[in-house]
Amino acid sequence: MQEEIDDAVAQMKGENYSLLMFSTTFPEESEDTTAFLRALTEYGEENLSGDFYLIGNSPMVYEMQNSFHSELLRITLLTAIAIFLVVMLTFRSLIVPAILVLVVQCGVYLTMATCGLIGYSIYYLALLIV
Fold it and tell me: What tens digit of pLDDT does each residue of 63-89 get?
């Protein structure tokens, strides 16, 4: 048994990095989960030397909540400009790309609004693909 414990410790602790794994009963997305991750991040910043990383679905959701609005605006503007330029160069018109960009952006916002209103959760990558 001691050999198995030593093997497990060797897998979790290295010369430069260590791995700590734990599981909670919090749901992936909730106010309690967000508060727990905020407290865990603050604890890590205050008590750990060097970098630390939280991985998993809940930390991913927590990080997206903190950066979603600025990233969404940036991605929305870049895609609208890219679509506008490609269609403008293809059709050599200003009206057609403006209408197409408006239709595409309305479709994205309707998808997001519908998912929010009926209670579905949608991954950030899915929004980017849409």
Answer: 877 777 777 788 888 888 998 999 899
Q: What is the pLDDT of residues 26-39, one digit of tens each?
A: 888 888 988 999 99
Helix, strand, coil percentages in the chain from 3-state DSSP, rounded to 5: 70, 0, 25
Longest dimension (CA), the chain: 74
Task: Give the residue carrying structure tokens 């060097």.
Answer: 50
Whether residue 54 contacts residue 37, with contact meaning beta carbons closer than 8 Å, is answered with yes
Q: How far is CA 36 from CA 25, 26, 50, 82, in A?
A: 11, 9, 21, 40
Mutual orientation of helices 95-118 and 57-91 as an angle, nearest 10°?
160
Cα–Cα distance between 9 and 111 in angstroms, integer?
Answer: 47
Tokens 């809940």 sit on residue: 58
What's the whole-model pTM score?
Answer: 0.53
